[in-house]
Specification:
Layout lengths: L11 E4 L1 H4 L3 H13 L7 E2 L11 E2 L21 H14 L2 E8 L2 E11 L1 H8 L6 H9 L4 E9 L12 H12 L4 E5 L2 H11 L3 E4 L10 E5 L7
Parallel strand pairs: 6-7
Antiparallel strand pairs: 1-4, 2-3, 4-5, 5-6, 7-9, 8-9
Helix pairs in contact: 4-5
Length: 228
């Protein structure tokens, strides 16, 4: 499958895993900035022995006192070395592609995608939600798809308009990873709106805790059709 490269925007650039490594420092900063805010509020690692924070991550800043457990978190939710190791592992273990937008101040948005089957996604992304295994197989079948693993923006550097190229980014990932379907999970309403705006009926949204047995919405896109 080769989609029209003219659809891919000039504002951003696609990278291979090796090509993107010089940007790791800025990408990690953007990642930490994005996930510390709404709707994720993942600023630090939970230090509660009972792990009462969802996903083991806390909204508290490092050093702040937690009213639930009485402890103070001491580590960032996402540490630089930890993230870089994860990015390297993905890039060396499967077909992977990056997309990055920048302005004069640095990386404003980055996205990471890789090809996978429903089984791989269930094991790697939903180990804590066993019911998702069958759900994913029914929703995606057993063919490889593009898993849009991460999309994150540094709003300090660009407060608005960070998803204006979302549709063309999705088309680019589908082309580079040679898969006809793109899927992702999200808590962010903006990620739902961007998919519907760009792809209309070619985007299917399953609502969290109602249509999908998970705390995050699930989106499936067929980007082979012409963008709206």
């Amino acid at each position: 499958m080769k989609l029209n490269e003219d659809l891919i925007m000039s504002e951003g650039k696609f990278y291979t895993p090796d090509e993107v490594k010089p940007l790791y420092g800025q990408i990690v900063s953007a990642y930490q900035e994005a996930f510390a805010g709404e709707p994720w509020y993942e600023a630090s690692k939970c230090v509660d022995k009972m792990q009462r924070c969802e996903g083991g991550l806390s909204a508290l800043q490092i050093g702040a006192l937690c009213a639930t457990c009485g402890n103070r978190p001491s580590k960032a939710a996402y540490e630089q070395r930890e993230l870089e190791s994860r990015f390297d592992a993905l890039g060396s273990s499967r077909p992977t592609s990056w997309y990055v937008e920048q302005n004069e101040d640095g990386v404003t948005l980055a996205a990471l995608a890789w090809s996978a089957t429903a089984d791989t996604i269930a094991v790697e992304k939903y180990a804590d939600v066993p019911n998702m295994s069958d759900w994913l197989s029914n929703a995606l079948g057993q063919e490889e798809i593009v898993w849009l693993d991460e999309v994150f923006a540094n709003r300090r550097l660009r407060p608005n308009g960070n998803l204006q190229n979302f549709g063309k980014m999705v088309v680019g990932f589908a082309s580079r990873l040679d898969c006809p379907v793109v899927a992702y999970r999200t808590k962010a309403p903006q990620m739902i709106k961007a998919a519907i705006r760009a792809f209309g009926d070619s985007a299917t949204v399953s609502i969290r805790n109602i249509e999908v047995p998970d705390r995050r919405d699930f989106v499936v896109i067929n980007p082979g059709k012409e963008l709206k």
